[in-house]
Structures are given as C-alpha cells and as structure tokens.
C-alpha cells in the first residue's frame, strides 16, 4: 500500500510517497481505510527536521496524526462496525506507566516515554490502510463528512477549555483567542458554544479566517491594539503572543498556552513585570498539549453542534495523495490543509 513516510537526510527531513507493508495486527484489531489526514505545524516540523523518534529498528516514520478513515474490519465488540467513519487517538501510554499513565491520563505523561502515532515512535495514519485498537478508535458522525478530520485538533482545544473551565475563578463572560489558525478558530468555536463573547486576533485581515470567526458571532481583530479591556479566559494559539496573553488576562482569570511558535518571535519578556502582573492579578497561566479519549469525544460533539458547513469551511486546502506537497506549502490566509487518501 502507499504511504507518506519521512526519514532524516543529513540535518533535514525527506518526505516520500512510496510502498510500505500492510499494517500489522499488533497495531490493533480494527482495519481502517484512510479517507484523509490533516496537516498541522507539528507535521511541518517533522517533515523539515526528520522524525523525532522513528519506530524501533526503522529509519522512516509514516506521518499523519490528524486522521479520518472508514472501518473495513472490526471485531463485534469493537464499538465500531465496518462502514463507520473513525478517527484514531494519537498517544499511547508509556509501557512502564508514569503515575498519570497508570490512571489512564496518558495525555499528561510526565516521563516522555509515550509514543504518538505519526509523531513519536509509531507510524501515523497517512497510509492507504491503518489499524487501531478499539480503545483508541473514536466513531465520527457521518454527517460531518470530511470535516471529521478536525476531531483531533478539536480534541486538543477541548482539553485546553477543560483546563480553563477549572482554572478561571470568575464567571467567564469574555474570551480572547490569539491566532486564527485551525486551533484558534476551534478555540473560538468552543468559547462561543459556552455562551462567551469571543474576540479573535490574527494578522490576516480578510478571507476564510475572518469569515469563519464572524460566522460564530466572534469579533475579529487584526491587531491586539484593537482590543479593549481584559478577558476572563485567554487561549494563546500562535506561540508568539505570550506576554500579550498574560497582560490581557483579567484578575482571577486564566490563560492557556496551546501554540509553540518560534521563541524568538515572542520578543523580550520582562520577567519581573510579568511576575508582578501574575501575582497582583491572581492570574493563572498554563500550558497544554495532546488529548485523551474524553477530549476527542468533546471535540467531536463541538464539531457536530457547529455543523458540517461551518466545520468544512476550515478545510481551505485539499489535495490528493499524489499532490501531497501542496498540503505542506505555506498559506498564511488559509486555515487547514488536508490530504485526501481514499474516497
Ligand atoms: C498533536 C498532539 C501531540 C503534539 C506533540 C500536536 O500537533 O496534536 O497530539 O501531543 O503535537 O507531539
């Protein structure tokens, strides 16, 4: 079968479309025919630099962690049946569990020996067929269609909001989302679904980013200078506006960092002033990465409530498997690029 694999060549990564063996039963009892994979910043990093950790004994890693596929074969007890659309959970716990992995919270693993499909030590989903263990397969409402490929990024955002819900100690009314990429717009979606007044900031003035934000009823700005006042919950999705995120957090409010941008673009942070601001404002700042099954389910619910028309509006770039390189090209005005693998 065909798959997109990355290997290291010197200091860089090299991504090729080529033949790989069929997936092994040890990857899971559910056999899935891939429909599409989404491409995100993590994929771009892996492709630029080569795999962080290829599967044991190999030098190439099949990429793709934002999946959507159709079940071909599944045991009767799997919870999904042939024909169902499914998405695969990304992370697998450490074989020697840390205290978090031991209680099922592998998304919080603290010793870094977990694996992640398409990212760390385990093949991803950018192959014509892949396998999933029943406990890592999430059924997708067929009404979502291709937009089901957004369940994984929506799960990351659902975890961020879960943490914000716990952290903010004032009844939330206003939320700020910095960055209107897929994560930012999904964060805005979950904010508006909580009944909040959501403000979104992105440099791109016109096009699908603004359209998708405004379709949610969010207020779109092209600079943080256009913002008024402070926000009960802030979601930083670009990695470059951390100081701004803290400054814009209301006293007793919380900011969640989801983006990992180039630290150089974050500018100089005056740590003493930042500390004073955090302490005197009783503010909480937290980071989040990865997601567990409950977050995949929450992300799926949020997309269903939004509807396929809004969710599909995030898929601004679609290419076939042969034309995969188009999905890695930079497109600052676009939102999410997907590679279509099957029908
Ligand atoms: C994925 C996460 C993953 C992280 C770091 C993100 O793009 O959505 O599931 O944990 O990359 O590897």
Automatic annotation (TrEMBL):
Say if the entry is tagged with keyword NAD: no
**Necessary cofactors:** Zn(2+)
The keyword Glycoprotein is assigned to this record:
no
- Chain ranges passing through the membrane: none
Q: Name one GO molecular function term.
A: oxidoreductase activity
InterPro entries from the UniProt entry: ADH-like_N, Glu_dehyd_C, GroES-like_sf, NAD(P)-bd_dom_sf
* Pfam families found in the cross-reference section: ADH_N, Glu_dehyd_C
Q: Where's the Alcohol dehydrogenase-like N-terminal domain?
A: 27-140
Q: Where is the signal peptide?
A: none
- Residues annotated as domain Glucose dehydrogenase C-terminal: 147-340
Name of the protein in question:
Threonine dehydrogenase-like Zn-dependent dehydrogenase
């Amino acid at each position: 079968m065909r798959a997109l694999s990355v290997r290291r060549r010197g200091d860089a990564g090299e991504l090729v479309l080529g033949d790989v063996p069929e997936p092994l039963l040890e990857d899971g009892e559910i056999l899935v025919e891939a429909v599409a994979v989404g491409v995100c910043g993590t994929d771009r990093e892996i492709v630029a630099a080569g795999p962080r950790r290829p599967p044991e004994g190999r030098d190439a890693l099949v990429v793709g962690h934002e999946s959507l596929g159709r079940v071909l074969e599944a045991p009767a007890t799997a919870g999904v049946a042939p024909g169902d659309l499914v998405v695969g959970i990304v992370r697998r716990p450490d074989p020697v569990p840390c205290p978090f992995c031991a209680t099922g919270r592998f998304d919080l693993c603290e010793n870094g020996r977990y694996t992640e499909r398409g990212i760390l030590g385990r093949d991803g989903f950018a192959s014509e067929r892949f396998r999933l263990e029943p406990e890592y397969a999430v059924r997708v409402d067929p009404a979502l269609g291709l937009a089901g490929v957004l369940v994984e990024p929506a799960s990351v955002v659902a975890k961020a909001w879960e943490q914000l819900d716990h952290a903010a100690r004032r009844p939330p009314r206003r939320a700020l989302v910095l960055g209107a990429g897929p994560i930012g717009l999904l964060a805005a979606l979950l904010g508006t679904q909580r009944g909040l007044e959501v403000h979104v900031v992105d440099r791109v003035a016109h096009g699908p980013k603004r359209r998708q934000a405004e379709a949610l009823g969010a207020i779109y700005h092209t600079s943080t200078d256009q913002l008024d006042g402070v926000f009960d919950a802030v979601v930083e999705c670009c990695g470059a506006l951390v100081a701004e995120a803290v400054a814009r957090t209301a006293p007793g409010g919380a900011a969640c960092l989801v983006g990992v941008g180039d630290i150089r673009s974050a500018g100089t942070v005056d740590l003493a002033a930042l500390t004073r601001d955090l302490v005197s404002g009783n503010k909480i700042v937290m980071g989040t990465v990865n997601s567990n099954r409950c977050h995949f389910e929450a992300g799926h619910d949020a997309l269903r409530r939004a509807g396929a028309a809004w969710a599909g509006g995030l898929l601004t770039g679609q290419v076939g498997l042969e034309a995969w390189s188009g999905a890695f090209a930079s497109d600052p005005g676009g939102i999410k690029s997907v590679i279509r693998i099957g029908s």
